[in-house]
From TrEMBL:
Native species: Trapa incisa
Protein name: Folylpolyglutamate synthase
Needed co-factor(s): a monovalent cation
Intracellular or extracellular location(s): Cytoplasm; Mitochondrion inner membrane; Mitochondrion matrix
Transmembrane residue ranges: none
Catalytic activity, EC: 6.3.2.17
Amino acid sequence: MTSHVIEKAEVGDNSKNNERDFPLSSSYEAAMEALSSLITRQNRKDRSSVGGKFGQLERMSIYLEIMGLEEKLNELKIIHVAGTKGKGSTCAFSEAILRESGFRTGLFTSPHLIDVRERIRVNGLDISEDKFLIHFWNCWNLLKEKVTDDLPMPPLFQFLTILAFKVFISEKVDVAIIEVGLGGKTDSTNVIKAPVVCGITSLGMDHMDVLGNTLREIASHKAGIFKPEVPAFTAPQLSEAMDALQERASELKISLKIAAPLDLKRWDGLKLSLSGEHQLVNAGLAVSLCKCWLQKTGNWNNLIRAKEDDEEYIPEAFLKGLSTARLSGRAQIVHDTPLVLHSSTNASGDTMGKLVFYLDGAHSPESMEACAKWFAIATKEGKTLPTLTHPSSFEDLSYKTGFFPHEKQSNSDVISKQILLFNCMEVRDPHTLFPPLVSTCSSLGTHFSKALFVPSMSTYNRVTSGDNIIPKDISAKDLAWQFKLQQIWEKIVHGKDLVSEKSYKADNLELLLPSKFLHEDITYCNPSRRIPCSSVMPSLPLTIKWLRDCVKENPSLHLQVLVTGSLHLVGDILKLLRK
Ligand SMILES: Nc1ncnc2c1ncn2[C@@H]1O[C@H](COP(=O)(O)OP(=O)(O)OP(=O)(O)O)[C@@H](O)[C@H]1O
Ligand SMILES: [Mg+2]
Ligand SMILES: [Mg+2]
């Protein structure tokens, strides 16, 4: 993208000019370039002071005023959702439920995986490129005209929030479902003054740099979205968090109800479209939020059968929404290389993935546990599972004995192995992420044959379109963080420090012979010889190639790869697999 294009795009007084001068795709790239310029490198804690004298929410109000959106925003019938984990899923369920109930929906979630337009959905679909561009340049140009030293352009998330409000207002949605970006009290979305109902998803420890170090502090930040006269619902919480939520609700004299996790037994044949046991919690909250929204907007009675007075009754449209809601990169399974089974046990010749990616963007301790549980169960499919236990110490775990029971014989001529493909942002603490992952998997009988640490490709300082991804210079990536992850992993899994003589050079792929993979555990994963069963891989494209070679060269191998630790990583893998 040349600066010429950006300049043109910026000065154009409406989007039509841009569209006339440039093909749509280049105009979209120009928008991404402009968006990227809004990414601030400032410490999140001091975000409110990013240039200018106004606080974050005050600035939001001024921007909305500039855009002429303030009044219309107050008329939107909003469901506002905060929480540590499950916000996106709860919002996605709510959107699908209300759309299936006959309403035109707007959905604002974060982050995105492949394309920024995923964050803004209208009636179930990501906003189209041309609509995005029209609204994008309209917001951009109006704000750009008014910026001063005291009121600079909004940072990325703030801009996207304004854009989403503008889209939902223009598209005349009946309901807007809005996910909080971070925290609650000071989040840009908290400029919403009178939502119809508020929801709090599962709370846990995350973003402590901004929200505080105790669950109570975190909960009180999230409760900052509560508003007078607006009912609130929460997923079940630990008492420390619940007390803080309740305290805020009492101050405002609003009702705070606990939404019970969905009980699938009651709904014969219902299968949630987002998998994992934790989704029952999110689905339960979504049901309560939607029911309340329908009641408060006077639509509930139209939806229920007249004689139905059962408190727990769920209309058909709700069940349809719960079974069709989608949100990629959360417990998503992608079959890469098809495998046709010819064995007598599968005479029908069903195909199953020979290389299967299990994608989940978990990046906090609680979500790691949820993700591990989902992976362990999903990879076993149909087998009897041991009861989930929480081993108190890693000393107890079987992998310390040197016995690796990870070869699951799912078919007489197929050997299944589980691999971990991991990366996380450097602000995360891997010491808190690996233990719940390893112990939960292990307690369910799943053990990784190998862990691969790979840098993500997306950079955090650019917003890109879905087409724009593969950096040319992959070898020049700094892999120090991946080596650190590997070291921590080895220490946790084998209790041994890694020898660091080969340090900071990615594993030579020539040595990781795919043809040997099937039998390599014994020779390579021997802690006493200090050879780790983990590798630092130089890039994601090479990692995928290596995995594909592994299954190609070992006809009986069935690889189940858990990709987790970062939504960026998950998004990159989705982009690469899609190509
Ligand atoms: N109720 C839950 N309890 C624990 N973990 C959960 C729960 N819901 C979702 N997760 C985990 O968190 C990940 C992200 O889910 P989701 O996108 O719904 O949450 P979010 O709150 O929007 O997250 P983010 O902080 O990334 O915006 C999932 O992939 C899953 O691993
Ligand atoms: Mg988060
Ligand atoms: Mg989210």
